[in-house]
Give the backbone structure.
Amino acid sequence: MLKVVPDESALVHKDGDYATLLVSDLHLGLEKEMASKGFRIPPYSQKMLDRMNSMAEKNRLNRVIVVGDVKHSIGKVQDIDWGIIPWFFGTLLDIFQAVEVVPGNHDGMISSLLPSRVKLHPAEGTVIGGRSKVGIAHGHSWPSQDVIASRTIVMGHSHFRYEMRDKFGGRSKEAVWLFATYDVADLLAKAGHPPLKKGEGKLIVMPPFNNLVGGQAINAKGGFDFGPILSSGSFRLSDADIFLLDGTRVG
């Protein structure tokens, strides 16, 4: 069973008595980039930890999986990464029995920053669950055959927002969830895997858990085609369901 946490950028997967929290796009260390642009904000990482802790207590969660982009820096590890990431994941290990990471495009050299008890999956993703299987991949590259064949894919990466305009010309962008269906055999073939499985699958694109992260308007021209999965031709925006964090359907 897979459910969206109300008013949050998070999913809870329950398989028997085992419950897992899924969050994506933490972008730890984003404050450094914002400071270089003149924005002075207090560290946001503690707020994200508090939100995770609250969800863990309310839902009796055993595990958390970060679905990519743990850190904001790309390429080499920066000083701010050493200052935040080991502490952040050490705290998560105090909250959850198990902590796991599926790396994203920002997560080069992430293994050097994670405590040894944190499980690091390959970039191609992983599958969780026994009776209720869910494939997890960040979305910046093609996922594994097993992830696509699971018939439920959860990914992040896209940072989708929905742009709204009022009658005075004012614009606002709100983070959104995207739910779409796919033909399993077709997506397997496009990913370069043998199309050994058939049937219909479900794709869930998560909003970033870090609320300070910007994003592209999904309803702008070309805004939907982001990453190999969504650019594969297996999905159409008109066939997808799009929801704001409060559950309002906007597409």
In short: The longest strand covers residues 171-183. The chain has a mean pLDDT of 89.
